[in-house]
Write a structure and sequence with these properties.
The chain contains twelve helices and twelve strands. The N terminus is likely disordered. Belongs to the DegT/DnrJ/EryC1 family.
Length: 397
Amino acid sequence: MTDTEPNPETDGGVDADAGVDEAADVEQVTSVSIADPELSDDAVRRVQAVLEDGRLADGPEVRAFEEEFAAYCGTDDAVATSNGTTALHAALEAIGLEEGDAVITSPFSFVASANAIRLAGGKPVFADVDPETYTLDPADVERVLAEREDIVGIVPVHLYGLAADMPALCEIADEHDLFVVEDACQAHGATVDGTRVGGFGDAACFSFYPTKNMTTGEGGMIVTDRDDVAERAASYVNHGRDVSGTGGYDHVDLGHNFRMTSIAAAIGRVQLEQLSAFNRARRQTADFYDDRLADLPLETPTEPTGYRHVYHQYTVRTEDRDALEATLAERDVGTGVYYDTPIHHQPAYETISTAAARLPAAERAADEVLSLPVHPNLSERDSRTVVEAVRDHFTTQ
């Protein structure tokens, strides 16, 4: 079982030079990938045990993973799902989102955060993001609320491994009697003032896609302190079955098959045990980059006071983004642009009421952000290769 209390003293602030091999500079490097999921021998053994047991679908392994993940987040309950999108969808259904309800969310995110609102019958309403953190700007949320009277909730997105401004957003939600569902799909273990994401809203949702800070292959999780939300979510992901009794074929409401498999849960339990180590490795690489890219004409990630970033992505920004991306590709360094089209400009959102909104911070970010490799399997040589490629791009212009 992994630790349940965040420890900024041991989980962050790593010396950027720790363990760096100076001789690595001269070694041949063929490729540095943007992501490299790691499955340990223990995970393989756990999966083998599930295969031998024969209970491959939703079962005891899933219940154990739910309990352990809730403990990690510091919440009372957790409900496992088939992926992060189904977690968001089921959480919104469990909250009681009704047809036509308007929900504020970020335009600068993977499309699933807004899609889930629509799939649950709601209307996404976009507020702009903070230009430094890329997460929902509380001031712009206030602007939207001053203009509309139909908002019932907020879905803030914790982006790139950094939490949104949850103290401010929760205060706004309390003032306006709004629900809050955290999209924590990119922020496993991130904290604000010592509280892990997942512990702020009415519910929070995580993804265990292979590139995330921890993985189950595909999978998701809803965490909550509300018993009613946990019960409704557990029913919704299991065909609307009655979860208060023996189960069986008593379907008390409409639902989906959004269940997690026991195989995925077995992997997830091992990954959860490793999550703190994975996050420390990501932070060490981020410190290394911060130190060696600080003098260049590009913005490196911010970590506001009281926040602990877990670097799902190490995202820089520069007006020279496309040229930098091309240079790194020539040096066999993988990169990613997350995201080059804000959601309100996506073709699928042309008919949404706020599709034509002007959201300058999100739109500018989409033109300028570039993510560099930061996964835990980066070697010292890999990290130096990334730094040298970025530095060479700017110093040879």
